[in-house]
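Support request, please re-run this one:
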Amino acid sequence: MYKLFIILLCLCGCAGSPYIPANYEKSVVSTNGFDIAVWQKKTDTISPVHIYIEGDGHAFNGRGMPTSDPSPKSTFLRDLAFSDTSPNVVYIARPCQFIMSPQCEQTYWTDGRFNRAVIDSMAAAIKQLAGKTPITLIGYSGGAMVSGLVIEHYPELDVKKWITVAGVLNHADWTEYFGDSSLSNSMNLEVLPNVAQVHYAGTKDNVVPPELTNKWTAGENMILVNEATHDDFGNLKLDFTY
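Re-run finished. Output below.
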């Protein structure tokens, strides 16, 4: 597998910067599948909630072997979420990141990272977190695929806008591009969900190259960010308008 990539029972900042804004609360959302780690602030019961979905994390080590803990080393998405000045913001980790559930098996961060069990748990967590407020989903890297599959399979969720950053939008194309093993235990997006959306791609992203984003979006709703790498988009300002 291409190098894209102890049990933790507490939500520590050990996978990156320890900085967490004082107005963010750490918690665990329990679903029928997995326990999900989240950091959130909510100050308004009416405004939309911006939910940031983490990427694949540290799924593989430097030798291309699966790790025992997929918690992300990079704080890119958490920092992006923490910079969001909207009243309701949630950063949501992927299953088995930061906290291990009894159901956690290596497949859920390798070939089954987009398995139906993963998508069902993420959708259940999003439903709990959003309540009755409208939702904007922001998916980073593999989190783009997760968010897209949640929108596709859970149309009852009130998702008003879908934003991706350095996002994988078709994992079969992605693995084929790099000559990697297919994600045989995962669902895929064949077409993009029919919601308001925007996709940010970096000109220097060698993990999700911009030509793939261009292929998946047919160049529509795509914003190319000059000099951006996979985990460095500078002072990126997301477009939350519908």
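Residues 71 and 98 are 5 Å apart (CA to CA). The chain has five helices and eight strands.
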